[in-house]
Amino acid sequence: MASGACSLVFARGVSWGIPRAVRVPIACRSLAVFCKMRHRHLSSQQKRQQSKRASWEQLPVNTNTQSHSDSNEEDSSADFSNVVQKTDGESEVNSQPDVAVSSIEESNIVIENEARVEHPSIHLEDLIALIRNAEKNILLLNQARVHALEEIDKILSDKAALQAEINFLEMKLAETDARIKLAAQEKINVELLGDQFEKLKFEMPARDSIEEGKYGAFDCKSPLVLELNALGAENILLKDDIQTLRLKLSDINEIEKRVSSLENEYSLLDSSLMELQSQLTNAQVDFSKLDSLQHECRALSDKVENLQALFNRASKGLNVPSLDLQQYDELQKKVNKLEAAMTEKFLYEKFHHYEGILQQKIESFEERLQVIYEETHSEILLFQESVKQFGDKIIEESEKKLEEPSLENLPWEFWSRLLVLIDSWLLEKKISPSDAKSLRELTWKKDARIRDTYLACMSKSDHEKLATFLKLTSSRASKGMHIIHIAAEMAPVAKVGGLGDVVSGLGKALQRKEHLVEVILPKYDCMQYDHVPDLKALDVVIESYFDGRLFKNKIWAGTVEGLPVYFIEPHHPAKFFWRGKYYGEHDDFKRFSFFSRAALELLYQSGKRPDIIHCHDWQTAFVAPLYWDIYATKGLNSARICFTCHNFEHQGTAPASELASCGLDVHQMNRPDRMQDNSAHDKVNTVKGAIVFSNIVTTVSPTYAQEVCTAEGGRGLHQTLKSCSKKFVGILNGIDIDAWNPSTDKYISVQYSADDLRGKAENKDAIREQLKLSWSEGSRPLVGCITRLVPQKGVHLIRHAIYRTVELGGQFVLLGSSPVPHIQREFEDIAKHFQNHSHVRLLLRYDDALSHLIYAASDMFIIPSMFEPCGLTQMIAMRYGSVPIARKTGGLNDSVFDVDDNMIPVQYQNGFTFVTPDEQGLNSAMERAFQYYIKNPKSWQQLVQKDMRMDFSWDSSASQYEELYEKSVARARAAARV
Ligand SMILES: Nc1ncnc2c1ncn2[C@@H]1O[C@H](COP(=O)(O)OP(=O)(O)O)[C@@H](O)[C@H]1O
């Protein structure tokens, strides 16, 4: 019954474009909303089932179907009705005047006939609404007419202004003509004078000889000479006049041009005026049509009212139970007679025709609603089932947890918070450095006593806690090292690129190896603060030196990814880390030299005695020279310095004088064997400084370490690196396999693993849906690319890969952004070009969540870098079963091995590579990948599974770092003993 009611209303709402008399019942609406919600939360299995069904939810929803009259009354039932209406392909009702005319014409027949159906009152309302619509349209047309008249007025006044301008110009033209004539006359005069002058010159010798006796050989005051001079001067004046007139003439030509362009404009305006006038005439015709329609409608309305009254009377008669059959028959006859009298025969037939159509529609809507109801019901059952399963699982897990000796497996956050607590006591001078050291050692050894103490006094006051903890302090020897990373990035709290991933990935891996790892970062205003839920300001101020004076720094502490992190917030008027971005400021050199100095000051003032201080890239490269030049002599001398260069393209060079700000001695440092830049001698190079001053120097892959030792790859530092080759090594980065794990990833639509790849296909469907890519051929390979769009990444080849993918029959999704304005613009143009394309989508932004989905959804992953120190995307892609197509350079050469390379053992072959960084090279690798994908689906799947099982974790890389640290520390201790 409810479904029938819904259908009837939908049909009317659609046909008439009038306010709905009856709304979709609440139950129907909530079902629709629930279906949407449910659709989002389906488990993988349910989604698979659902995608197989021809779902009503996938039907296109037309948001344009409401007429202006009911747009204010939209509710969720409107969405529902739109779906139904569009499905049946009924015509849309438009509020534009010209369309309204035809809608009314179409509708008239229905009005008259529907008056005979069982809901006459609703039709009358419909009719009234229709008439109102018509009136509104008439109003609109009137407004348009007034507007057109205003336009005409405006055009006419423009025309008058133009005419005045033309008149003025014509006057000027006449004036100039007169002047030209005058000038011509004067020119003739000049020529005559010139002739006279020549004649006189000719006559002069003769006259001279005749009058020599009278005036002497040559007298400058002779009348002839004077006359000649006067004529010469007049000649010059006349020449000037001619010049002026010529200029005026050219002015006049200009004016003539302008006049002709104005005339053109005038004729254009004239023609648009004509057009407007004809439009106005058309509108007037429409208006008169509407007028007559309005009359017709009124007449019809009267007829319908009469009919209504008759019907009502007849129906009343029919409903009175006491009337006998004869009376009923008589009444029926009367009704029939009245019907015959009031309705023409053809109307009656049409009525039946439309009634049939209406009936069919009602039936089909009812069927559809029934299907929807059944589907929704089964969804509800499934959902209830999954909720139950989920609940059972939670109960099971919590029971398990209760049974487990949970204290053994406390998360890293627990220990890191404890460390932060100890450090805050130390910095606030509540405990001595030696007590802090003992407590820290107990913590990083995960000693049960400190664990129990912490758990026992969690609710106690700080003072009581302190007293209990101090009871624990005793000196203990430690096997692990105390490692401090000083960096500009750390994922996920402050990540720009791979550096951020390395700091947290390596830090966590070293922590797992029982070392005490801490990180110091700038406190950027634009950090992802939600990744440091326990962030707190310490009750301490650290003063650090800069530009000849001391500045205060506020210290914040919290845990990120289970690691204790200290954030430095400088109280410097330049607000160094309050810029809304990480890098790219004019004073980056100052910002990061300040930070490097403040980080060391924090270590120094906290009394920590780390074994390793590990700094990264040019931003914290200052730490190495500052440590040995200033802090080691001050007493912070327990540590060895490790410097990792993640990219030799950025070396942090600046005029040597800028080094003085952080307290380094410019004369001492700006030397060829220290920080002086190898090509510009008036500059210092911070990366060079760190190479020279560090005990361990690393870069992020073995191949890149070799490349930077060549003149081509070293960017001016190859000689420095060669001279430090004993302490320089390339260690391939790992990836954080917890953060990048397709079987637990919360950002992707469906989790999956190498053992069950079905979820991968569902992620592909999900991204196609999200990005509105075509679904038609599900087997099309999807090529992904996630990158910073900088020349290093081979932007021209990325661009080429987009077009080549389309040619090869694939789909392409790019996620990236560029700090280089012209590259960003270029890709914006490409994105625009493909914005409605079925197979290409470019998303020019940084979006961590979307990056996860792209890795999961793509079949192939493009990395055509010009050079690549390590590269993480190829490893992440493989972990998600996306096969890399990469250029053989740097870290890509150490992690992607071609499936067709016989020199590589089969178990390591994992992708498609090319050497020459041009379109042919890339084409060859892409074509091989597409062939493989299309022709050997089974082998492709095996390749995907193999890639997913490859170990790119930090474990082995962290072990290499550990070994380097240990050797360096051992050497230092041995040296100290000597
Ligand atoms: N536009 C983006 N949105 C989200 N993540 C991105 C984007 N661009 C790059 N990334 C991420 O940044 C990291 C890139 O690391 P890497 O391959 O070493 O390149 P680089 O450090 O040179 O930028 C990866 O984790 C990658 O997923």
What does this entry look like structurally?
The chain is an alpha/beta fold and 978 residues long. Helix content is 59%, strand content 10%. The protein is built from 29 helices and 17 strands. A 9-stranded mixed sheet has the order 3-4-5-2-1-6-7-10-11, sandwiched between helices. Strands 14-13-12-15-16-17 form a 6-stranded parallel sheet, sandwiched between helices. Strands 8-9 form a two-stranded antiparallel sheet. Helix 26 (890-895) links the parallel strand 16 and strand 17 (912-914). It is extended, with a radius of gyration of 44 Å. The N and C termini lie far apart (98 Å). It binds adenosine-5'-diphosphate. The site of adenosine-5'-diphosphate has 18 residues, from helix 14, strand 12, strand 13, helix 24 and helix 25.
Summarize the structure.
With 978 residues, the protein is of the alpha/beta class. It is built from 29 helices and 17 strands. A 9-stranded mixed sheet has the order 3-4-5-2-1-6-7-10-11, with helices on both faces. Strands 14-13-12-15-16-17 form a 6-stranded parallel sheet, sandwiched between helices.
